[in-house]
Each structure stands twice: as C-alpha cells, then as structure tokens.
Design brief:
With 246 residues, the protein is of the alpha/beta class. The protein has a single domain, classed as Alpha/Beta hydrolase fold, catalytic domain (Rossmann fold, 3-Layer(aba) Sandwich), CATH 3.40.50. It is 34% helix and 23% strand. An eight-stranded mixed sheet has the order 1-2-4-3-5-6-7-8, sandwiched between helices. β3, α2 and β4 form a beta-alpha-beta unit. The longest helix has 16 residues.
Length: 246
C-alpha cells in the first residue's frame, strides 16, 4: 500500500471551502488564551524535516496506557483541548497528545504522516498501547480527523469528530481506508458554521461504505465544543476506548 502522502492529488482531501472556513473561524473566535499546567509537557517532534510542537500529558508511567491525539480547531490551540480532557485523562488513565496545527492549506497533504510522527515521538516519553491510539478532532481538527480515519486506518483504532463532516467533493478519501475505522460524530443541530445536512450526509456515506458510526445530534447546541465538552467527553471516551486494532 502506498504511503498516504503518495496518494494522487485528486484523491486528497484539500478543499478551498474548508480552509476558507478555517480563516472565518479564526476571525470569529480568535485565539483562545493558553492555559498553564504543571502536569503537561511541551515537546517538539521533527517530521519530514519540519518541527511540530505538541503537548503531552502522561497520567501514569508505570504501565502502558491508551493514547488520544487531540486535534484543535482553527483559531484555537492545543492547551484548551488538553484542559477539556484532563479530568477524563486522569480518571481513565489516558495519555493526551495535542499537536499545534498550522493553519496552512498545504498542511493537509502531510497531516496523516505528521499525526503518526507526533505519536511515535511521544512514545519516547510514555508507554503507549500500540493497538489503542485514538483521535478526537474539533471543527477543522475534525476535518483532519477524517483524513486520519481514511489514510491511517491501521494505525488509529477509532476516531471521533465534533462539528464537521466530509466535503462532498472529497468523499473518495474513504476508499483509501484499508480498515473500516470506527467513527463517532457529534453535531449541534443549531451550528451556524457547519452544515447539519452535510454532517448527516457524511454519516450515511460512512455507513454505506461499511464504517461503524456512532452519531449524536446535540439539541440546541451550536459550534462551541467547549460548551458541551464536559457533557460529551465521557461518551466520546466510552466509544473510543471500546475499540482496538486487530
């Protein structure tokens, strides 16, 4: 199987619509202030000659633990994502890995490789259960999480997404999946920025192609993940933690 980054451009998931949305979200929401925590380490991975900073939280070092790769939205940063998941991480013993994602259209081409590279780098500092590495992406991070599900289907055990669907022009990315990655989708019925109709279509598309989908539509919820994080994170983890690579 060719490496994800060698897949022809016509099958890649780069969409001018999605990246235009990224800039819009940055303007609307701005950059969320960085939090500070003594239990979170800042690391740097070198992937394909480029440095990528990421945050790492390791709740326990005495044994191998599952890991969760957190992909933030545009205008956001890794810190709030780690803060949102810290309680779950400590309670359920989850290693959190949160890379700082560049807001560049060309990043998506390298994203699947970078995600694996960052997780592999984190293994230098933590003992990760190789068959239990998961992804959660919010908004633009969710857009990239679909890439992880498609191009890294035999590396990530399961993927969860909040507030994002697959652009209809790039449905073909799912054909790259050599394994039907289980996917959970959480979507607000009043999201003003992402089409509920398209997210429902994404659910149906995934199911038609044999993917296992856990779909949760949130009544009266908009685009703000942090407004519902405390409520949905336990359900996200319940879904992800039950999945493992064969």
């Amino acid at each position: 199987m060719p490496h994800p980054c060698s897949i022809p451009a016509r099958k890649r998931h780069v969409s001018s619509w999605a990246w235009s949305l990224a800039f819009l979200l940055t303007v609307l929401f701005g950059v969320i202030p960085r939090a500070s925590a003594t239990d979170v380490q800042t690391k740097t991975a070198v992937c394909e000659g480029t440095q990528f900073r990421y945050l790492l939280l390791v709740p326990e070092k005495e044994r191998a633990l599952p890991a969760l790769l957190l992909l933030h939205g545009s205008g956001d940063s890794p810190w709030p994502m780690v803060d949102a998941w810290r309680q779950q991480a400590k309670k359920n013993k989850i290693i959190l890995i949160a890379p700082e994602l560049p807001l560049r259209r060309d990043f998506e081409t390298a994203a699947p490789l970078v995600f694996k590279c960052v997780v592999e780098d984190a293994k230098r500092f933590a003992t990760v259960e190789a068959k239990r590495v998961y992804v959660f992406g919010n908004s633009m991070g969710g857009y990239l999480a679909y890439d992880a599900a498609a191009f890294d289907s035999e590396y990530f055990a399961a993927v969860a997404v909040h507030a994002m669907g697959i652009d209809p022009d790039y449905d073909g990315i799912l054909d790259a999946a050599t394994r039907k990655t289980p996917i959970a989708i959480y979507m607000g019925e009043r999201d003003p920025l992402v089409s509920l109709k398209n997210v429902r279509r994404t659910r149906e598309l995934l199911q038609s192609k044999g993917f296992s989908v856990h779909y949760v539509e949130l009544k009266d919820h908009d685009h703000n993940y942090y407004g519902v994080a405390e409520r949905i994170n336990p359900d996200i983890w319940d879904f992800l933690s039950g999945k493992s690579l064969p």
